[in-house]
Structure formats: C-alpha cells, structure tokens
Amino acid sequence: MLRLEDIRKSYNVGLPSQTEVLHGIDVTLQRGEFVALIGPSGSGKSTLLNIIGLLDRATSGRLFINGKETSSLPEHEITRLRGHSIGFVFQYHLLISAFTALENVMMPMWSDRRFASADMETRARELLGEVGLAAVAGNKANNMSGGQQQRVAVARALAMKPDLVLADEPTGNLDTASADDVFALLRRENTRHGTTFLLVTHNLDLARRCDRIIKVVDGRISP
Amino acid sequence: MNPLLPFEWVVAIRFLREGRMQTLFILVGIAIGVGVIVFMTAMLAGLEQNFLKRVLTSQPHVQLLPPDQIARPLRDIPGVIEDPVVQRPSQRIISIDQWRKIVAAARAMPDVAEVSPTTAGSVLASRGDASRSVTMSGVEPETYFNIVRVPDYIVAGQPRLTSEDVIIGTELAKDLGASVGDKLNLRAASGATRVLTISGLVDLGNKSANQRTTFVALRTAQSLLGIIGGATTIDITVRDIYAAETVAQEIEAAQRVEADSWIKTNAQFFTAVQAQKNTNLLIRVFVALSVAFGIAAVLVVSVIQRSKDIGILRAMGTRRGQVLAIFLVQGGVLGFLGSLAGSGLGAAALVYWHAMARQADGSELFPLILEQSLFIETALLATLTGLVAATIPAVRAADLDPVVAIRG
Ligand SMILES: Nc1ncnc2c1ncn2[C@@H]1O[C@H](COP(=O)(O)OP(=O)(O)O)[C@@H](O)[C@H]1O
Ligand SMILES: [Mg+2]
C-alpha cells in the first residue's frame, strides 16, 4: 500500500548549509502491516515520516500511496490525500486547545465536510469511547493529562478511517502504563480494521511487539 | 458546534475567543475609532440638517427678480472709443414683466414644487405715536405658505391673510405696542395708506427679521405700492433642494428674469459644509487606516502564535483556502464586532452631547439624527477594513509549511 523508491531529502537546498538528511530510502509497507521505525536521534525518522505523510516533499525519489505516485500531484490533491487516507499522531502539540476533546476528534471530518452534523458527533463519541475517554469528551486539551491527550489524538487520527496511520513517538513522553495503553489501542485498531501503521519509537520493548522493525541510521535503512 | 456555521467560521471564532485579551483590546481600539466616526458624522449631519431646515422653511429655494436695470450710453458708434461713466439707475419698485406667464412656466417644470408671486416693498408701519419702517410682503397665502411656513412660526393669532389682515413679526409688535386684533396703519412712500387688522404674530427665529417682517395679502400690497396686478418677485420651492441652482439657471435661460437659488445666496454655508465634509472624510480614512493596521498587527501575531494549530489543521487535511478563510473571517469579525461596539459608543456619546450642548436660549444645538444607514454603512466599512487588513496575515497563515508549523 506504501512504496518508497530512492527517497532523498536535503534541507536548505541551494544554501551553503545544504545537507542531505535522507540518502535514498527504499521501503515497502503492506496493507495492514504494523511497523516500527527506530533509529538514533537525528537519523531522519521524523523527516521520513513527514515525507510519507505528505506534509513534506522529498528532494528526489518516488512515493506511491495505494499505487499512486505522489510527487507530481498538485497541492489540493495532496491535501485531500492527507485528509482522507492518512492519520497523524504527533509527539507534541497534539490537540487544538481552543476545542474540546470531542471537537478535536470531529475536526478532520468537520474540516472536510465543513458543517458539523450529528453523525460526525456520533462517530467522534464512538472513537472517544474506544480510547476510553467518553467521560472527558467535553474537556478542553489543557484539562487533560498527557496520556489522555495522546489518546484523543489517536482517536482523531482514526476519525476519517485512514488507510495509513503515522505516529511520531506517540508514547515518547508518557509513563510506561500510559504508553502501553496507547500502544494497545493502536494495535487493536490495526487488527480490527486492518489499518496500516508506521510508528516511530525509541521504546525497543514496544518495537519488538510490532510486525516488523525498520531501522534508520544516518539517513539510510540499516539491515 | 453550531451546525449552521461552516468550519472556518467556527475555528475563527474559537481562535478569537481563546485569545481573549488580544481580541478585547483590538475590539476596544476599533470601537473607539468607529465611535468617533459615528459621533462626528451624525453631529455634522444634525447641524447641517438644522441649518437646512431653518433656511429652507423660511426662504424660497429660488427667487425670481426683475432683471437689473442697466444704463447704456446713448451713442454707440463703432470705432469711436468713449469713456462713459455709466451711473446705475435707482432701482424702483417694478413688477416682473409678464409674471403670470413665468409663474405658469415655472409651475410646469418637473423639479418645481411650488411657485408663488410676491409683491414687496418698504412701508412705514405706525400705531399711535410709534412708527417703524418695515418690509411689507404681499403674498398669496395658499401658495406662499408652502414656501415659507408662516403658520409654523405663528406664536399668537392666526395665519390668516384676507385683504384686511396683516401678520407681523413679534419684535415689531413689541416695538409698536401692538397685539393680535389691533389696527395697524401702513403708509407707502407715495403717501398711500391702509389700515389693517393684525391677525397673527410670527417668530422667524431672528431678531432683525422679527422687527421688519410684515405679511399682507398680495392685492393689498399691490394697491399700496401702486403696482396693480404686478409682482416684484416670484418665489419657488423645488423638490430636490440641491437642484435649486440648476432650476434657477434653466429659468434664467428661458425668461427675462434674474433667478437666485438658495445655494447661491448661502454660498458661505456650502463652503463651510464642504470643508467639514472633507475633514470628516479625511478623519474617516485615517481612522480606517489605523484600525486596519491594528487588526493586521493582532492577526500577524496570532498567525505566529497559532502556527502549531495551523500545522495540525493542515496535517488533518484542512486546505490552504480554508486556513486563509479562518484568518480573513477573524479580521472581518473583529471589524464587524468593533463597529457594533463603536456604533453604540458613538450613539451614546451623541445622546449625551445632545443633552448637554444647548444653544443660548436652551434649545438643542443640533437635532439627534441616528440614521440606520450610518450604522449599516459603518458596519460594512469596518467589516471590509477588517477583511482587507486580514489578507496579509491570512496569506501568511495559508502559506505556512505544515512541517515547519508543527515543528514550531
Ligand atoms: N528543517 C530543517 N532544516 C535543517 N535541518 C533539519 C531540519 N529538520 C531536520 N533537520 C536535520 O535533519 C536530521 C534528521 O532530523 P529528524 O528527521 O528530526 O531526525 P529524528 O526524527 O530521527 O530525530 C537532523 O540532523 C536534523 O538536524
Ligand atoms: Mg524525530
């Protein structure tokens, strides 16, 4: 469902400080795979995830999502693909603080369809229930613990029933118990709906519980 | 989660609400600017209307007079240069030539509302030992009272003008010790006299006018002044007061009369009003500019503060255009809400000032005019200003690279 061919990424292109961060990445993910992306800090994991998530563009190389080559797609198509096919869970800055947990979960659907509706709300409540947060649906982000916010972010990433969920250290700043909870949640979603997951983690224990581990070192896939 | 508001509006409003202090301060700033505009514009309109009302209900919009009598040198031989001293002849009381025809022609003009012939001249009004030189206007009440609203100014007696009646100014009545029902003797320069009954007293709001004004029936004036069947002026009101000068020029072109519009005779007032309007416009422009920069400044900061939120939105599939709209709406909403608050502020200040500022005699300095159109116009202008001010911040927000925004 996802294929990367010789993806390279340079920062500060054209400047004296130009540096290549990814030096030709080839990766294939099968539908329904649950994959861990590990590697030392600064090795290019986040950069790679952002490229796969269509938040950033590779300097060269080809990226196929559901068989579609993405580097030549126009901006609005990219945005659409991002909204409909990909779900993100970030490490920090998870939620929009001006909105409640429920509204944050509704947001991808809301942004897409522009008008709030009862189904949207039902779906969001269902997701909040799945992540065990039905009780805090009306809370604003700053009235929730880090673990709760992380779980709301997971619920939001799943709202559009994406084919692929990308999570950048989703458990990075959680205690072990919360991290286990969030991981279990992702795994359950994966088995239930066959959603493909790619998650960056530093936690080797969690990585071992994934279907496969991809290791990045200095911008290259390390065997 | 208002189902009637589109997503961009909801986000915009939430952002504004969350940024409480910023939002509040800029709203106060806009409100003050808008308040000043509303206050000034309404007061200016009030003063202008006050003046116009006074002028236009106490004098004709256009007055037709006999053309100036011009003395010409007798010899006028081509090639012979003369150096004549041409003395302007004394201006006798003379009737407008063919005035009935001119009245009919004027009445037929579509812009003309009312036409009334008048015969006026100086007479000596006396009662007992007291006498005063006054201006006697002989009028047809049924038409003239539509031009100068004498009935509105009657303070005692009736606005009645049979051939035996005279209506006089209040000051004149005081000077002569006369009141309603008393007899008044009027004597023309020729020596002709009439004794009339005072039917009413008028207060035209001006002391010297009240000292000199007397109204009699047209025929009475004609016989007293010795111009039987004549009219010395023709008074006209027009439908659109600002068309008065055009109407005057049309009549002058078509008839052998001199036509003076109120616009020409009150040229000073117009210069003053125009100067005020220009100043007002200038102030508006600068207030709008400072409001625009205020809104832009707040939104530029907001875009920076919200860059992570914008990144999250973009990662969720929110389109660039939607981000643009979110910030444009914020600008528009700020402008609109600020204009509402400002309209309230301006109106309150106006009501207060209207109650406090009085003329010497205790009457209002200006009428309280709070026209809906002023508020609608102001709200539209402020909303538009907000939108325009928001464009640069909004474009910046839409152009934010989602990765950079999230990395923050
Ligand atoms: N916007 C950027 N500009 C320049 N260099 C960057 C930028 N983002 C990341 N880098 C560099 O790219 C390398 C990879 O970073 P990143 O993808 O964040 O690694 P990881 O997520 O594995 O820690 C790092 O050396 C980092 O300094
Ligand atoms: Mg990283």
UniProtKB/TrEMBL annotation, chain B:
Q: Where in the cell is it found?
A: Cell membrane
| Domain spans labelled ABC3 transporter permease C-terminal | 285-400
Pfam families (UniProt xref): FtsX, MacB_PCD
Transmembrane domains' residue ranges: 24-47, 281-304, 324-353, 373-392
For this UniProt record, give its keywords in alphabetical order, as a comma-separated list. Cell membrane, Lipoprotein, Membrane, Transmembrane, Transmembrane helix
Taking every annotated instance into account, which residue ranges of this chain make up the domain MacB-like periplasmic core?
A: 23-253
Q: How does it sit in the membrane?
A: Multi-pass membrane protein
Family according to the record: Belongs to the ABC-4 integral membrane protein family. LolC/E subfamily.
This chain belongs to the protein called: Lipoprotein-releasing system permease protein
Q: What is the lineage of its organism?
A: Bacteria, Pseudomonadati, Pseudomonadota, Alphaproteobacteria, Hyphomicrobiales
